[in-house]
# Entry
Amino acid sequence: VNSIYLDYNATAPLRPVVRVAMDSVRGLPLNPSSVHRMGQEAKKRLEAARKTIADAISVFPHEIIFTASGTEANNIALRGFAERTLLVAATEHASVAALGARLGAATLPVDENGRLRLDALAQALAQLNRPALVSVMLANNETGVIQPIAEIAAIAHAHGALLHCDAVQALGKIPLDAGLLGVDLLTLSAHKAGGPIGAGALVARGNAVPQPLLVGGGQESGRRAGTENLAAIAGFAALVSEVAHCPEAKEMQRLRDRLEARIAAMVPDAVIHAHQAPRLPNTSNIAMPGVNSETQLMHFDLAGFCVSAGSACSSGRIAPSHVLSAMGVAPELAQSSIRASLGWATTEVEIEAFAEAWIGLYQRLKMRDRASA
Ligand code: PLP
# Structure
């Protein structure tokens, strides 16, 4: 399809090294639980992948539980500690937010930059009479806002709480070291960074041992039953080897900043959400005041650009963004916001084209408004 793809936070095109790693496994009868030589070979490859990923994020291999998605890892983390009171940040991805709501979690507020209110966290924890599980993402999928996870971990631990961190959007974009972050539980997913859809992991460190969600065979040391998807896991490990040091971060940031600077220079009314906060280098969430995001998406789609608004729900419809609303963004402004997210294959030519299309659309619609006024 002839298009300019700026929706990497939804999913990214597969990296060539990932494809090669997957092709070396795909189609072979490799079940790591089999005792024969093919099974042993499968087990060897599975454990090699586990070690590659563990080394890259500074954890022990046995702390990694492979899953089929980030969503599944988040489900194991949140459902795996039923005895704890659950606290989740207001800007979490649906796989934490919707599940948290179902499990009766309390919501922790963020400030106008989308950063967790640490005072509110400490206060909420101080009031509990049961140990808690706190869930705060490392980087937000809609705005790119990065949370001060190490500080949050210190507060959580001071109150005897465990910290779960959804790092799905961080992988390959900012450094990821579970030890430095001080988290107990960490969620990863391969497909946002150019790995396969269908490979994720929950890292469960030290004494944080979740109850399994899937029970059956003893795979993943009894923590997640079901035959491991070795091709996807091999792709995941190849991805992590390639992106552990965020090779494209500088270039993505240069292009993202250029996009924002061009739009701000031509359209001073444009609002770049959370641009004061530490953000991922690849994400830009921009409001075109007075133009609703569905109209923008339709125009951009017709012009060949893939961008998104809020977070796409499975129906493909656009839901109002709970992230922007938690940051106190006015509903009209939130409903005129779209997200562009860049990735490993994004080029300067694409960014220039999108900046021009954005400015062009704004000017055309404003001219039309003036003519009809
Ligand atoms: N967490 C965040 C922050 C995400 O952006 C996503 C994907 O949209 C997920 C979790 C879910 O990951 P997966 O698509 O692997 O289930």
The two ends are 39 Å apart (CA to CA). Residues 348-372 form the longest helix (25 residues). The CA atoms of residues 308 and 316 lie 10 Å apart.
